[in-house]
Design brief:
Blueprint lengths: L3 E5 L6 E5 L2 E9 L5 E9 L13 E2 L2 E2 L2 E6 L2 E5 L5 E5 L3 H21 L4 H17 L11 H10 L4 E5 L4 E4 L5 E4 L7 H18 L2 H20 L6 H4 L1 H38 L3 H21 L11 H28 L10 H13 L3 H33 L1
Antiparallel strand pairs: 1-2, 3-4, 5-6, 7-8, 8-9, 10-11, 11-12
Amino acid sequence: MPDPTLSPSSANDVAVPAASTTTEVTATVTTTTTQPVKESVTIGDDDVDYSKYSKGDIVNGITIHHILLQYRDAIVFTSPTERIYFWHRLGERGDEAVVEFYRLTSKCTARLKEAYRRQVNNLLGAALAEALSMPAGADLKKAFVAVDAFIDAHGPIEDVFGHTEEWVVYLDPDGDLICDYPAVSEEAAPLLTEFYRLQQLGNASLPADENRALNKILGTELSIALQRTPAPSVEDAFSASRDYIQLRNESRMRALYISASLVAAVVFGLACWAIIRDDLGLLLGCVGGIIGATISVLQRSATLEIRRFLPRAQVAIQGGVRITLGVLFGLLIVAASRSGIALSSFASSANSLFLAGVAAGFSERFIPDLLTKITSEGSSGNQAAATKAATSSAASGRA
């Protein structure tokens, strides 16, 4: 077949040959200064010796980066952007290999889109080189079996958020967000660092369904940031992802806090009824404390501070502890009222004890302040009694 001129293909960044009667190649020559210089020469179809090409040669504007196969009648190589290029002069045997190459290129584009581009190109290049090296009569398709298996194992890819020659951001079939960026630029390094930090933060703190949603937001933000010139700040680039992680964690923890509090309220309410139902005033005081604590939980839930990585069990325990305090505060306010220490006028009415219990359960400081006051008054009384006793003893001694 005539010697082809290489031109790039839109199919997964793979080059396709187009027929030409002559080929312009660039050879490396050495001057007296020993510095290599690229010099373009034109060689006819029959004179092309593919074995003379070397890494760094520029062929029709394409720099040879890595040679996969090379002998007089064929060459397969990759460019610096890892596209595959090939020439061959092998007749029908070479055409059969090229047909299989194009089939897998189309399949890769359909199933993988731009994902796994470097891996597939490496496999395709190696498979094409192997096929062109096989003897006449051999089954050339066997050389491409590994490529076919790789495409089937890693596809289909549904979401590709963005790509250029240097990078691609996509979701793999398992839902994992992948950024394939082999040579990270200096401007992109802070963005990728924050990207991986947020990705791991989402994996550690979000359930699977919310993490999948985060991956789509994160992939979109990263793709936009990598394509902006100049590169945006890290804070601006991933603001939506950070808000999503924070708000989702806060809402889930608040819901857990409220749920645990409500469950504890029901359990303690039933326990109080079962244990002290014969004492209506005490029962209503304790139930009032439960209700007051529950109101406090519901009121404060919107402003509750949720710290990062706070264990779920601790949040649930905090909700239960708040209701436990409500029960205890209701019990103490009834005892204080009946003993005449505080709110003694409430002791005669069960409804009044209920309201006192609600107030005690709602206010976290009411009972602690009351206990502090009682303790202070007790200490003052004891000190006054001791002083009076000492004075009386001294007077008796003088007498």
